[in-house]
Amino acid sequence: xxxxxxxxxxxxxxxxxxxxxxxxxxxxxxxxxxxxxxxxxxxxxxxxxxxxxxxxxxxxxxxxxxxxxxxxxxxxxxxxxxxxxxxxxxxxxxxxxxxxxxxxxxxxxxxxxxxxxxxxxxxxxxxxxxxxxxxxxxxxxxxxxxxxxxxxxxxxxxxxxxxxxxxxxxxxxxxxxxxxxxxxxxxxxxxxxxxxxxxxxxxxxxxxxxxxxxxxxxxxxxx
Length: 223
Hints:
Radius of gyration: 17 Å
Number of strands: 7
Strand content: 5-15%
Structural class: alpha+beta
Strand order of the largest sheet: 3-4-5
Order of helices and strands: HEHEEEHHHHHEEEHH
Largest sheet: 3 strands, mixed
Shape: globular
């Protein structure tokens, strides 16, 4: 999750920098240990178990590529974040109280675009790696989602869920932007992954308007 920005993520960051002043006040290292002994610990463990987690407590620390702008942060989700395992994490009751989180959309993306995830995340370490197998056991052959499926995908989905919990615990107003989000452009709906490939001024302006509306919605959540 801490890898180099892909071109779409980098373009989104550049567009946001044209309007918002960046800050670096948040610790980008997230750890599940932050939730031990908190009200969120049980929620974390319920979802970990639902994914097939094998440890009594998942000791996971990872860097999160937050784009931070004053009072809010943006996190970009590309195609590898939407599949059956992310859908399972989205069943958590945690999301029911978060009015700003696009729950129904993310559930839909996880159902509709798993084939796109397969196109980009069947090689290792995305499909499987030592850390993922330590938590979720051995994976099937690359690309085979039957039986045990992909330990790597499970770990990515669990980290996404942990990020949402930890952000809430830290009182971070975090906006998730997805490659599958729709945006009205030139009188038709266009997906973010198309607009972000080589955005010109007109596309950048529409993206900023989209983000502005979403940022307002972040303040509907009560911390």
